[in-house]
Specification:
Blueprint: H1 5-11, H2 37-45, H3 60-73, H4 84-95, E1 101-105, H5 110-122, E2 126-130, H6 135-141, E3 146-150, H7 164-170
Parallel strand pairs: 1-2, 1-3
Helix pairs in contact: 1-3, 4-5
Length: 171
C-alpha cells in the first residue's frame, strides 16, 4: 500500500510510550536506567535494534525522526546528525580511505572544501576539483581510483545548477 507523503510526514516512525500519547514524546535524556550494572554492561555489549543505551548512539526521539525521513525518501533507513557538516564529513569519511580519489565540484560551501582539501588529504585521499558545469571536466577527472563524486546542486554560494543525472552517469 502506497501512503501519501503528507500522511508519512505526520505518522511515519511514530513510537508511542506506555501512555499512548497523541503526538511524539520528546525524550530529553542522555542516559537510560538499568536494573543493575550487569544489565547496563549487557545492553552496551549487545544492543538490539530498538534498545537505547546512551543519547550519543540514539534515543527514541531521534529514531522517530530518522524513520520518518526514511519513509518520506523511500529509503530503507536513515541516520540523523547534529549538523549538515557532520553529515558531509561522516559520509565522505565513511566512503573513502587512503589511496582513494574524489572528484568534486569547485563551487562548494567553504566548509565542504575544507573537509575535502584538508581533512581527507590528511588521511591520504586525493581530491580533484572541477568546474561542476563542465561535463567534459568531470569525465576527464574520474579515474579507476575515484571512489565518489561530490557536488551541491544548487551550489552554495554561487547557485550553480549541476546536472545530477549527467554526473551520476559519468560516475
Amino acid at each position: 500500500m502506497t501512503r501519501d507523503k503528507r500522511t508519512l510526514a505526520v505518522h511515519a516512525g511514530t513510537r508511542r510510550s506506555q501512555f499512548s500519547e497523541m503526538s511524539e514524546a520528546i525524550y530529553m535524556t542522555q542516559g537510560f536506567a538499568y536494573a543493575s550494572a550487569e544489565s547496563a554492561e549487557a545492553r552496551f555489549e549487545q544492543a538490539g535494534t530498538d534498545e537505547f543505551i546512551y543519547a550519543r548512539y540514539g534515543n527514541p526521539t531521534v529514531r522517530m525522526f530518522e524513520e520518518r525521513i526514511a519513509a518520506l525518501e523511500g529509503a530503507e533507513d536513515g541516520f540523523a546528525t547534529a549538523s549538515g557538516m557532520a553529515a558531509v564529513h561522516g559520509a565522505l569519511a565513511a566512503m573513502t580511505k587512503a589511496g582513494d580519489h574524489v572528484v568534486a565540484a569547485r563551487a562548494l560551501f567553504g566548509s565542504c572544501l575544507y573537509v575535502l582539501e584538508d581533512v581527507l588529504a590528511r588521511f591520504g585521499v586525493q581530491v580533484t576539483l572541477v568546474d561542476g558545469l563542465d561535463m567534459q571536466a568531470w569525465a576527464e577527472a574520474i579515474t579507476p581510483q575515484t571512489r565518489l563524486v561530490f557536488f551541491e546542486s544548487i551550489s552554495n554560494p554561487t547557485l550553480e545548477v549541476i546536472d545530477i543525472a549527467q554526473v551520476s552517469a559519468l560516475a
